[in-house]
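To: structure subgroup
Subject: Chain for Friday's discussion

All,

I'm putting the inputs and outputs inline so they're searchable in the archive.
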Amino acid sequence: MSPNKACPVILSSIPGAHILLFRHPIAGVQLVKGTIEKGETPAQTALRELSEESGIAAASVVSDMGCWDAGHLDQIWSFQLCFTQAPLPERWTHLTLDDHGHSFSFLWAPLDNLPYADCHPVFRRALRFLTARLTAQGYVLAHDQSRNTSSEAPT
């Protein structure tokens, strides 16, 4: 399965396991995701999309979490677990230069209480897949011991 989309995944504990999501002003709650461009690896795409869509530029990929068939528009998503060098705020808004210049409102959603009702069905399925993968690979429990938030804006 060769991916054509990449999705950076950032976890935090506030306390408990939380995942970074954003509210699109038209399309509801989503994960950051974007198209893998020619010559890019999924990890490179994940970091590029993270910067473009959230303003987080100081991040690195720590684990390739595998691929998922979205069952939507022939999309195969590659999930890339990322770590940010700087702590992130609990909430912030980022004005994108692409996607028609929308303001994306970022939030930390608890993995045990995700806002499925506010998500497009493809993101609901992606979050279910991702939650199962994070749990199976032990990331949720391991990450609960650290905190990756502050009152500073992302860099």
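Points worth raising on Friday:
The first strand starts at residue 5 and ends at 9.
Residues 125 and 153 are 30 Å apart (CA to CA).

D.
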